[in-house]
Structures are given as C-alpha cells and as structure tokens.
Amino acid sequence: MEHEMSLTVTSDGGRRVSRDDRGEGVISAAIAVLVMAFLGVGMWVAFNATFQHASSRVNQQVNCIGQSAPTC
User: pTM score, two decimals?
Assistant: First the structure.
C-alpha cells in the first residue's frame, strides 16, 4: 500500500507534509470492532437456541423418569 504525501510550502517559508490517509487506522479498527461484535451476537444467538433446545429435551426426559406413559 502506497502512502501519498504532498509537500506544501507555507507563506513564511516553512514546509508542511500532509498525508491523505490520516484516519485510516481508526477506521480499520472500528470496522474490526463491528465485525467482531456481529460475530459475537451471531454466536450468542446460536448458543442460546442450542441451549434452549437441549434444556427442553432434558426436562422432557427427566419428567419421564419412572413413568410408563407412551409419550416418553
């Protein structure tokens, strides 16, 4: 990746170098944080759905202990 720089001479004879990609690191970090947040939310939703399903199956099996009902 190339970084473009331009040299500007001020009216008092000083030189100033300006860069075009000043906020690039902050923007990249923000995008990375957003991607990780969306991944975390997706993983939580998947975990929660799996846990709820497993919990209901365990409760059903525990309630069937000692019964001779055909639904168990």
Answer: 0.54
